[in-house]
Amino acid sequence: MARKSRKNVGLIGLGIIGSRVAAGLRAAGSHVFVWNRTPKPVPNFVGSPAEVAEICDVIQLFVADAQAVADVVEIMAPLLEKRHIVINCSTIGAEASVAIAKLVQERGAAFLDAPFTGSKIAAEKSQLVYYVGGDEDVFQRARPVLEATSRAIVRCGRVGDAATLKIATNLLTAVTTQTLAEALALVRAVGISPQTFAAALEHNACKSGVVELKLPKMINGDYEPHFSVKHMFKDVQLGIHAANEQRLEVPLTTVVGGILYGALCNGWGDLDFASLYRNYTDAPAADAPIALVDATPKPSANEPPEEAPPEAIAAEPEPAMEAPGDAEAAPEPPTDSEPESAQPSPAPPEQAPASEAASVAHNGASEDDEEDPGLAGFFSRVFRRKGTPVEK
What pTM did the predictor assign? Predict the structure, then answer.
């Protein structure tokens, strides 16, 4: 085909990151051919993933999840051959990465597992960091394409290892952001200014890149998405599943997964995940403080308990809330790059439920924990803020 050349690079998925990577590749001198589920007015937009594979030898994927990656690869598969390198930059599980690599390799093509770290700004400046798993000779062939939009590349070993490392770093980021929201809420509640809090962090060992990025967004209420709630929730699900596979307890991750799910139920899925701070700024004024222990006076041995009003006795029990990981309850999660590059699909099998009950219990908590008034009160407020029911 006339358009085929060694400098042709394919990119599938034109979300927040993918669109900026495509621009960076063009700026570096590559002829970039792109496809997205929803057509966009960009140069060299082609008709299908198969056409991308026909034109280009190296193809980067920035799509929704493991199912979306598999769908795109299956469409390209009849055209894949030895000249091709498929580079998956979407955050998916290690098991899915290995399975998709096998599908590509069965066609004679090569595969790299190359998730990235870096926000919208880093992508605009071609300053992403890629974690790359796969054969060294394949990496060397693809290296110029990855270097064009990155400031560093971390070699991670086999296919699947990079996926695990990316998920592990995102777990740390999620928990840090929730803790930052809690700390900011505390200092503001006692009358300390956010600016004083920020100044104190400048000289504290807990200062980090996450703190530097997310604290100003929380203070200013700026939740323009750099990395969305729905994508962080998806990655936390992957992390919980990976930990369960290794029989590891991850209680903090599990709790934060529940809080992220509550944010989805509040309609914050497309906001930056710094919007977890809205759990404190958007709380209804009538909300009572969250108790860590049950402070309700207990009747003495000689005093009979107060009789419930008749209407309370006759009241119907409230239906149980669906677990956040249930396939019908969890909102559909697209990916790191917010792409629209594959048709909506059910959550991929490698995603584990990040539910307040099932996942917490799986990670070492007893079922009796659901009766704790502090924990129950917290999740009741997070999941049912402003009367928002859990979608069925």
Answer: 0.72
